């Protein structure tokens, strides 16, 4: 699965092209992910994304990928562990359940 910062309403052709190129589902993040009951795994790059990620984390709507405190980098291992936690592990169940609950709010 590939998560992108976009909207299906604005760029449907581009999103479908990404799915064809990568051979994986391409999910626009946050609103669209919650519409489809997808738990969020958060990796921020820009200023406003950090604020949004903290709010989503606080509400248990998303899990942030751990980063190095000194330089902000993340590792393949931390990404893989975060995905596994949210998608499979028992301790990530809260994120999956919260995503299902949010469908009613964002799915209309």
Automatic annotation (TrEMBL):
SUPFAM superfamilies: UDP-Glycosyltransferase/glycogen phosphorylase. Gene3D superfamilies: Glycogen Phosphorylase B. It comes from the Eukaryota. This is Uncharacterized protein. It comes from Hevea brasiliensis (Para rubber tree). The lineage of its organism: Eukaryota, Viridiplantae, Streptophyta, Embryophyta, Tracheophyta.
């Amino acid at each position: 699965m590939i998560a992108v910062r976009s909207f299906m309403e604005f760029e449907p052709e581009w999103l479908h092209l990404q799915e064809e190129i990568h051979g994986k589902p391409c999910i626009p993040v946050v609103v669209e992910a919650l519409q489809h009951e997808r738990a969020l795994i958060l990796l921020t790059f820009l200023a406003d994304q950090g604020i949004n990620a903290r709010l989503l984390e606080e509400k248990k709507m998303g899990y942030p990928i751990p980063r190095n405190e000194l330089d902000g980098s993340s590792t393949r291992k931390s990404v893989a562990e975060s995905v596994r936690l949210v998608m499979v592990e028992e301790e990530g169940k809260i994120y999956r359940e919260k995503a299902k609950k949010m469908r009613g709010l964002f799915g209309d």
